[in-house]
Design brief:
The protein is α+β, with helices and mostly antiparallel strands and 469 residues long. It has 13 helices and 9 strands.
Amino acid sequence: MEYNSPKFKKWLDTLQQESWQLELIISGFAIYGLFAAYEPLGYNANLAMNSQKIIHGFLYSIIHTAVVILIFNLVIHVVLRGLWIGAIGLRYVSGDINFDSLNYSEKFTNHLKTKVGSFDKFISKLENICSVVFALSFLMIFYIISFYAILSFLGVCVFFLKEMVFIPKLAKQIILIITSPIIFLGIILVFIDFIGQGVLKKKKWTSVLYFPFYKIFSYLTLSFLYRPLIYNFLDNKFSRKLSLFIIPFYIVIAILSSFDEIKSNYLSNDLKSSESYSNFHNYEDKIIEENNFISIASIPSQAIRTPYLKVFLLFNENMESLIFEANKNLIPKDDKRGLTITFFEQMKQGFNDGFNAGLENDKILPKYIETFNTIYKLEIDNIGYQSDFVISNHNKDLLGFETYLNIRNLGEGKHMLNIKGPTKEDDFDPKSKTVEKVLVTIPFWYFPENQSSSIKQHSVVLQDTVATN
């Protein structure tokens, strides 16, 4: 019961009077660290999602969103604290506002005394705003975690429903029809209660209806971890008013940041790669320049000057399922795909059968690659090319398949590379029919170096001949 002792309460009273110093120190260090972490977190989030590491990408996205919120709020806090310190310094020089010394008319003097009031009152309001904004900055992190926790819950439900292949498709649809309205009703009620600052807890009939959802979603949103902070925040009239202002403020900022100028009805930066559009996601030199990632496949550049063309096809988990479907002999007894703790597996391989596992892979991989080359096909200008893919780590994070095509006999100019492969008609139904389609179309221009150099030498010879004559 130490928190009830007078000594502890006196210490808290003293500490809260001096908390502004701690706020500034924490804000300064936090802003510096958050700006340093902002770009790497965004890069890793995009990289994980592009590599289909959904869990890693989701976690990085949570942290990245929290960093953005913290930077925004803490910068506002530092600016307001700076204004507060400046106001205190000005008070030391000139004291309170003396409206009579301004020599304004009686009408304006009375108006300013009513509307502006005491300078000490202004400092007190600034102090309150700064303290609430600082506390709200970290409370918003918990709100972000709650939001992503709900999304995680929905994602897990969809994942397990998708993986339960023994359940008929009709039964899955019935389960979705029954459970979806209940889940979304709970989400809507929690959101209304959040925006209304506990409005559903105030009336007897609404509280009876809302209480079961409140109990369930308190665990789903992890709100039981920070509930005291919320209610201490809401029991203050000034804090409630500020929180009502801050949420629309975020919405306005989000809307304003989405403003863009549309220059064409048909042209866009987000078009899919095709015969008419070359998307930079398919060209490795552009990916390096733009600090972006391969989406499906890539070639070195839009302009190819070598008599060969390197093609890289990004690996994803669905590929392996399609390979197993094409060659059932490759299906392992123990499918290791999915979430796992690699620490114990590494220990097992390191001390027991790591060497034997390597030998087993050496026997399986040739058949694995042979099957892959059978089901994934390459065409240039609708003419088939023999694919001879090998496994390649494009970089330390991107795994895929790589091959080189002989294009020595191609004519100069524009050409179309098509990569065909199997895919499911319904991505959410593993039992749906497998069909072959064009996965990606990549345009490129072929201008071989040897021909360009011979043309250059020929022009030099002509120039020399003309000069001699």
